[in-house]
Amino acid sequence: xxxxxxxxxxxxxxxxxxxxxxxxxxxxxxxxxxxxxxxxxxxxxxxxxxxxxxxxxxxxxxxxxxxxxxxxxxxxxxxxxxxxxxxxxxxxxxxxxxxxxxxxxxxxxxxxxxxxxxxxxx
Amino acid sequence: xxxxxxxxxxxxxxxxxxxxxxxxxxxxxxxxxxxxxxxxxxxxxxxxxxxxxxxxxxxxxxxxxxxxxxxxxxxxxxxxxxxxxxxxxxxxxxxxxxxxxxxxxxx
Lengths: 122, 107
What we know:
The complex is a heterodimer of chains A (122) and B (107).
Chain A: E1 3-7, E2 10-12, E3 18-25, E4 34-39, E5 45-51, E6 58-60, E7 68-73, E8 78-83, E9 92-99, E10 109-112, E11 116-120
Parallel strand pairs in A: 2-11
Antiparallel strand pairs in A: 1-3, 3-8, 4-5, 4-9, 5-6, 7-8, 9-10, 9-11
Chain B: E1 4-7, E2 10-13, E3 19-25, E4 33-38, E5 45-49, E6 53-54, E7 62-67, E8 70-75, E9 84-90, E10 102-106
């Protein structure tokens, strides 16, 4: 069975930084793109970022581009989201999720972690 | 960016009913659409991908249809456990935008 487990959330002041981790188990990890999706309290889902299976391509929603950096270490079956210059509007539950199909670019997200909470507050 | 508009934003139905949720894209996206179910306090669950392909393990009373700009998720023979919020997501290009969600209440 495939699992994704997020960690690294917490409370941080505006302007601060956090690094989220997403550890994947149960599959050949390096063939799958992995996404970060966030959900503010009581709100809908907002896609944040994606990284390709080999780590060679990454993309971001406009509101975080230049502040967040996605990366992966396939030897550790992990994806990371480095979040700098955090703002109150970044407060959310952050999920990682994988593409359904091996080596696919655009795809549905078939396995999700349970999320890690990021709170940006002074 | 392509915008995804879901309707209705909420609905209420009875056990055994059939309901339909629609999702409209601001530009054509082919068949690159997924539907997710999210129950309170849980992560989203993939129901449908490629507009109409049923994800493994999802009951066959869930079905998806559409292409281009107009899509629909239908749930037949509603069960109490179908109470949840449903989201569409387009994934033909970045950003893979979600719809705003449809909250389904079971009477």
